[in-house]
Specification:
Blueprint (H helix, E strand, L loop, with lengths): L20 H16 L5 H10 L4 H14 L5 H10 L6 H14 L4 H9 L4 H7 L12 H11 L7 H13 L3 H14 L4 H13 L3 H13 L8 H14 L3 H12 L7 H16 L9 H8 L9 H13 L3 H12 L4 H19 L2 H11 L10 H4 L1 H12 L3 H14 L3 H12 L2
Length: 432
Amino acid sequence: MDQGPAERVVDLYGLDLSTTPEAADHYNEALGRILRLESDAHAPLLAAVASDPSFAMGHATLAVLGHEFGTDSDTQAHFDRAVAVLDGTSERERLFIEAYSHRLSGDFDFLLSYLRAHPRDVLGISIAMPTIAFSGAYDVPEDAWLALEEMAPHFDDDWWFSGLMAFARQDQGRMDEARELAEHSLGLEPRGGNAAHAAAHVYFETGQHDEGLAWIDHWISDAGQDSTHRCHFSWHAALYELALDDTDAVVARYQRELAPPTVVGIRGLVDASSLLWRFMVEQVDHDGCDPQAVIAAAGPTAVSPTTPFAVMHAAVAQATVGDERALAALATRCAASADPVMAGTMVTLIEGLQCYLVGDMSAAADAMVSIRSALPPIGGSYAQREVVLDTAISALIAARRGTEAAALLEQRLARRARPRDLILLDRATAAR
């Protein structure tokens, strides 16, 4: 009796996979974890390639995780294995692997071209979009959101795409749409990290700090307990507590959820050090918090960051320990860059921090104010880049330029409520 055609083996979004059904099941488990921003996507991928050593996309995705997240030191070995087993792989998979080979060398153009032809490749889209998980393929976030708009017709009521679009909408300042999309996404998949991240920003940017704190604490302990970026959600919770002037709670959260060894590596710079610097510039008593431990646990990025976003956080980290020599070395490194953001905006940022450390508060304030409008191209969120504004306000108050500090605070208060800003406003008024 003739057998019918073999059943197609596909990923979660219907794209063909050149492998066995068993390996595909492991791969799809990993892909789901990547899309939800959950931990341990690495293990099912290893199971996939153990089941089918000729599964090129399995090897390539292991390389993606190693390169993007540092989950594996054998990134190149995984990628070389993917290339070695390309025979029998579909054209779509071969094109993805070729595009990622260019990404490994710092060229995103091939990936973006690939996505125009394969707009339902959710792994490729994840790599290209700037989110909590991936740095993205675009110099300007708004370009990423425009590309995401073009992909929308290919996703009908999809929880993952809705969560990603929610993050885009909050970055565009369209908070009502972002909230609706995030709530819809989380209703379909409560563990979705992109939607939860978007919701965290919406609560913060709309001044709903009490509501945001209650929501995020519940999400972290429930649906988000397996989030691979759990520490960043703790950072968001800390921002709510700081905004509410609950200084005891925010310092306790830092020590419990953000200090080494709980948080290490680049996340330590991005989340822990930036929070410690905010403690310093807002005069929050944080005895018992050791900023030097964060730098020690951060690894090479603390002294040799390669992107403007990493430079900003490395500079802030070095400022928390008052390391003027490290800041000077970082400024020299940036000044030699061909990237105008590195050689311009980042050098000015570092110079401002240097002035702050030596007590030249007026010069520090001028430096920080001068780069505020130039910050979006460095990446990250408004909440992350706001550390520059916080530093400017602190320096203006210390320089007895209270009228200017008050103006910045009143602008922020007009945009969103922040109880602690009222305390800072009193300090600014006294410094006039």
